[in-house]
Fold this sequence. Notes:
The chain contains nine helices and eight strands.
Amino acid sequence: MATYIVLLGSPGAGKGTQADILIEKTGLVHVSSGDLFREHIKNKTELGQLADSYMSKGELVPDDVTIAMVRKRISNPDCEHGAVLDGFPRTLVQAETIKITLNEMGEDISVVPYITAPDEILIARLSGRCTCRASGHVFHKLYSPPAKEGICDIDGSELYQRDDDTVETAKKRLHVYAEKTLPLINYYRKQDKLVEIQGDQPIEKVTEDLLAALNIKV
Ligand code: AMP
């Protein structure tokens, strides 16, 4: 049986950072729908062009194309032991569809850590965030600056501010999150899969809580 973990939480809650740590500890594959879209944008594909028109405004990319993209990704052999899903599902339709897909494979979502933080912290985090062009490593101008400004500590590539990490777009993304993604909290709570993790703590403490919730010993 494979392990599928859905990391739930607002934009800026720390899902990407925690997903990176989690894949290191578990050997699972990191599947981030946002990263997949950014890869398409970088490669100038048709899907990338479509996704960009929504992402730059802080809106969700339509369910059908998002679901098809993630389905294809998790059917890749490297996901045979499971995956950490980050930023997906973001709507009830996505959640229902992925459940059906996994069930058809004889699998299911194992657990859904829900990382929470107050809105003002999320906006400050999103608008100070800088991301590495090569691999998407994330730094923050105030909270976790790179050793050398504008350069990724991990792979030396250029750091940039995502189009959707401005204050205005961050607010819009939080609004979209509240409207479209919050219903997933009850959806997974009812299935007894939800575990709340307080995201406004130091990164190491969030990881510790997360690993404890997942029952992973380090
Ligand atoms: P993220 O990197 O997860 O913050 O996602 C960045 C942007 O990509 C979002 O604001 C959406 O425009 C788009 N996106 C990522 N994941 C999804 C999804 N599951 N459904 C729809 N749009 C998504």
